[in-house]
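Entry 14. Structure prediction run on the chain below.
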Amino acid sequence: MIVAVIGLGIFGAKTAVRLSEKGAEVVAIDLNEGLVDKIKDRVTHAVALDVTSERALRSINISDVDIAVVALGDNIEISIMAVAMLRKLGVGRVIARAVHPLHEHVLKEIGASEIIKVEEEMGEMIASKIVAPYVLQSYSFAAGYSIVELKLGKKFEGKTVVESKIRQNYSLNIVALQKRVPFITEEGKSSYRVEINDSPMPMDVINVDDIVVLLGSEKNFDRLFSDLEES
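Output returned:
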């Protein structure tokens, strides 16, 4: 997969590096040569060019990328022009960052496939960490539904998946368990390795430090969170 990331501020640079770490071929683009230099050793290609220039984009064969991420936020005009140019040059999937509703509306109108609302998502994440500190990560994948990584704590410590009654009581599905398993290194030192059980069985035990991955509706997660707060 070839992904172009346009705009190498904090959000764009982080996105580019994580994509590269996950095995994508990443073309990182920004007009600022300093930002390009900072990232050039961590992605496949890094180039300094004007993304509003059709000639400049054609020079790097931008139409060959599978996905383009327009991470520009502060300069709304450049963001809009970049999306329009990418669509004109035949990039099939364009994911763009929007900083307010009007920006989002315009990006959709000119052909952005998906919209990222960083500020809203960060606000949601911070609020979740305040009211539900046991939640480690949360991913919305459909309206009203999420995949949540959390620690269930002492309330469920030592119970098997079936004994926890999470499915019966909360209509949530346990889709994975992440455990820290102790072992002795070749040097004779105690250490831990992470093991992922992506197909938990009814008799698998939930330990207090296990990270549990749950899938279900947000209203059902709210019921679970309420019970965890009381325990």
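The CA atoms of residues 4 and 216 lie 33 Å apart.
Filed with the rest of this week's runs.
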